[in-house]
Amino acid sequence: MKTSKNIAILSIVVATKNRSEYLLSLIEVFSHISDSRLELVISDNSDDKNLIVSKSILKNSHLSLIKYCHISSNISMHENYLNALKAATGSYVMCIGDDDFITPEIKVIVDYLESDKPNCIIQKENLRYWWPDVQHKHYKSKYSSRLRIPTRSTCAGNELKFSIERSADALEECLLKGGTEISMLPKFYHGIVSRVLVKKIEKEFGTLFPGATPDMSSAIAIVLSCDTFVSTNACFFVSGTGDNSGGGSGVRREHIWKIKDVPWFSDKFIKAWPDSIIDVACGPTLWASSVVSILKDRKRQDLLNKFNYAYLHAKCAHVDFGLIPIIIAFLIKKNHNHVPIILVLSIIFNYIKFLLKRFFSLVENIMSFYFSTTMHYKYWKDIKSPIQANKVLSIVKINK
User: Is residue 327 part of a domain?
Assistant: First the structure.
């Protein structure tokens, strides 16, 4: 592990495998944001022993704020993240994907960390970038090389705001949405968490990732371990979607597996899959399974009673029409041929809401292809790299 003597305030943690084309851009962005309070920690489980990334880092020895480790033996995604976290020295940690990247506004966040010392901070607005290689199932290359800026964010020229949020409210919102959404929760992945809270979670749960999916399982562990957290409209990172990623698979609607075929699942997670969720792994069920399994393990029946299974079933049907017969068969079997009419009506009601949401999303997508501004976002096209994206963000802010 290449290390530095610097003691960071914030460690930005990345676990990667066989995706050096994204990782190199992330490193380039980090090197342009010069701040000794930051460190970038990379755990690389790539197959190729003669890695482009390792050569690049060794060549750029002046990048003393980067820690890089290559693990040649095959390990799980959980283990890859844990390996990176072990090497992090910051008072705060933040996990991002190798196709994500930070913005210069991260410096404002570090200032806030030093002055107010919160448990956790999340970015309220979704600043997003689609890499040039992205191919949508329906829109093909129209999604590629696009930067989406939320109109309510500081990147769009709005005043910087920090708000105190109640963990109980965030968790209840997640449960009402069937454990299928994570944006409202305090989290490691795309969030910043204090080292003090990390140690508390390790002590209470035995691991930072107590469920099948590292992002949702760690978010549930955090929300159960702190009373409040902070949200901000500052856009300190960009959520990237590359073609060779989970997000890219989602864009192509390829995010569906049999449970035994999930790439990172061990026997432990297969056995722990809740019997209240269909035996199909897709975006909604993967997150929901982590929520339900953790709450069951913690014996939180009071919270499980609030879990909205109708919302979950409806969202699965919305994700892929082919799941509808599976959902129907599952409900009939689970309810011994007597599916409650209230459950059926609730599923139909939620499904109609998803159809309406899809319609309005379609309208917004079409508008975004022809206009640079919609009701909630500003779009920039032909953005070929994260470096270019950050330059655009700086220009937009200055012009405001």
Answer: no
